[in-house]
Amino acid sequence: MCGIAGFFGFEDKELIKKMLDSMYHRGPDDYGSYSDREASIGNRRLSIIDISGGHQPMHNEDETVFVVFNGAIYNFLELKEGLEKKGHRFYSNCDTEVLVHLYEEYGDDFPKKLLGMFSIAIWDSVKKKGILSIDPAGKKPLHYFFDNGILLFASEIKSLLNYEKIKAELDGISLNYLLNLQFIPYERTLFKNIKKLLPGHTMIYENGKITTKRNWKLEVTEDEKPIEYYVKEIQNLFTDAVRRRLTLSDVPVGIFLSGGIDSSSVVGVASQFQKVKTYTVGFGEPTDELDSARFVSDYFETDHHEIIVENDLLKVMPEAVYHSEQPSIGMLQSYLVSNAARKHVKVILSGMGGDELFAGYDRDLYMEKNLKYGKYVPKFVSSKSLFNLINGLPFSLGLNYHEFFRRVNAVSQLKDVTRYYLLLRGALNITSETKEYFYNEKMSGNIQDIEKIFLPYFSNNLDIINQKLYAEFETKLPYHLLHIEDRMGMANSLESRAPLLDKRLVELAFSMPREYKLQNGITKYVFRLAMKDTLPKEVFSKPKWGFAVNPYYQFRKDLKDYAEGMLDDKIIQEIGINKKIIDKILNSKPNPKLRWYYNYLWNIVMLVLWYKIFIEKENPKNLT
């Protein structure tokens, strides 16, 4: 809905204006700020609810508490009614105003009352107290810089970089995480000294100090209720979640449609309330899902739009990197489809989250099926030393052996759940023993064992599938998938809403036994049951491709030429990358089995662009 920014601990009216101007794309409809001697908070607004009366910052009755807000509060009408009964008076019909009165009524715990996606900043001018908070899933980001008693915050890092004491520097540990995982987990960002506020957390600023508290924590249980209970609950909660996200808008709403179960379910339920607009994208590749999406569109009689992208991916890469600030391959198609959808609507619904809640990936099946053989694997075979040895063999024998040895490594690690999961995820898993193949000496001190991040999720008594879903909900989902969805949508002034990530649905999904999610080799079993009377049967038999481009096709088409033309040896050295592996990939004959390496090359290309844009201050428009 917007971009928010501000700071606590000093006054600078010119700075708050620059911070907001840097995020014009997040809210081109309106902007506003409040400043006093000890704080400034501001907002760039994408007007969706109460278009004429929703100007921010908003305040309480005596104008002592001020709020700026990014997102949507889907239960704000119920909250408003309850607050009015307690004596609070409102001057708008906007969900933002509810927040300031909730804070007055419930203090720092007010986010617990919210159903929605949000990043919030509140300044209490009487108590000289600042509050920052984001939603449980981390759909709406908030970054911050804290130093010597002052706190700056913003929806995007580029806004923070307007503060003269923040120098844009690459964080090597974060780079290692990004190349290994395609995302940066937890507080770190690709920029030194700039951090993320974690999902479901609230930060409190008082007397030049900050404290952080968790206002929501995912509880994973395995309640033995009958499957019929969960089917009915999913139907009721999902219908309500779609309805709220569809109708809480004074502007048109569209839906991203791939033709898979999740997005088709959103379309099917939404069509019960109104005629909907749907959008899908094709890349001129065998895995395109245009036919499947068209079938679903015809079935529900939607106003359907197809976006065909064959030669634009690399053209938009610099602009996408600029908006992402944490580059990854999946952002490019998201940028393009968001750009096309914004020509018709301001709000889009997606099927994001269904796979992470109900076990929708093939690797869910592989984990459950294959790990039972781990007990037959000798302990020495699953050792870390053998793992590192096998990981390094492709480099000494040639890149074409990589896929073979990854498969060998997967079999050898069946006894170690965490390593096996990372291998299935396609994680790079660079270790101290293999770092020389990927990095030069500049990165020598930045190698972190990524297994340590995931070990806690696989060290409990939960079923292996619930362990895996727990790990992905708390890592890949907020720091990769939702990061892309927010940044690429807002780059095009488009708000994205995810009904499947409704807090109530999340809590329900993580309360059910594994066998309701995977049964007889069928993924998302309980969700399929819940949707069987809504969707045509053809949707359930559709193979899962995913909303992504194929790096092998792109390498063969234009990625190789693009990389050879723009990769700068000096920058690659500065980043800390071993140029030899880049040369090996570029000089190799195109081969579908080298898909993993093409992904790596693509990541390096985007990192070089990132360096040029944020470190060398080049205009992304000059890099196309």
Automatic annotation (TrEMBL):
Q: List the keywords (alphabetical).
A: Amino-acid biosynthesis, Aminotransferase, Asparagine biosynthesis, ATP-binding, Glutamine amidotransferase, Membrane, Nucleotide-binding, Transferase, Transmembrane, Transmembrane helix
Q: Which Pfam families match?
A: Asn_synthase, GATase_7
Which Enzyme Commission number(s) are on file for it?
6.3.5.4
Q: Which InterPro entries match?
A: Asn_synth_AEB (IPR006426), Asn_synthase (IPR001962), ASN_synthetase/amidase (IPR051786), AsnB_N (IPR033738), GATase_2_dom (IPR017932), Ntn_hydrolases_N (IPR029055), Rossmann-like_a/b/a_fold (IPR014729)
Note whether ATP-binding occurs among the keywords: yes
* GO biological process terms on file: asparagine biosynthetic process
The active site is formed by: 2
- Residue positions annotated to bind ATP are 281, 350-351
Domain of life where this protein originates: Archaea
> Where is L-glutamine bound in this sequence?
95
User: What residues does the Glutamine amidotransferase type-2 domain cover?
Assistant: 2-208
Q: Where are the transmembrane segments?
A: 596-615
Molecular functions (GO terms)? asparagine synthase (glutamine-hydrolyzing) activity; ATP binding; transaminase activity
Which Gene3D superfamilies has this protein been placed in? Answer: Glutamine Phosphoribosylpyrophosphate, subunit 1, domain 1 (3.60.20.10), HUPs (3.40.50.620)
Instruction: Show the GO cellular component annotation of the record.
Output: cytosol
Q: Which reaction does it catalyse?
A: L-aspartate + L-glutamine + ATP + H2O = L-asparagine + L-glutamate + AMP + diphosphate + H(+)
Family from the record: Belongs to the asparagine synthetase family.
Q: Which NCBIfam families match?
A: asn_synth_AEB
Q: Report what the protein is called.
A: Putative asparagine synthetase [glutamine-hydrolyzing]
Give the organism the record lists.
Candidatus Methanofastidiosum methylothiophilum
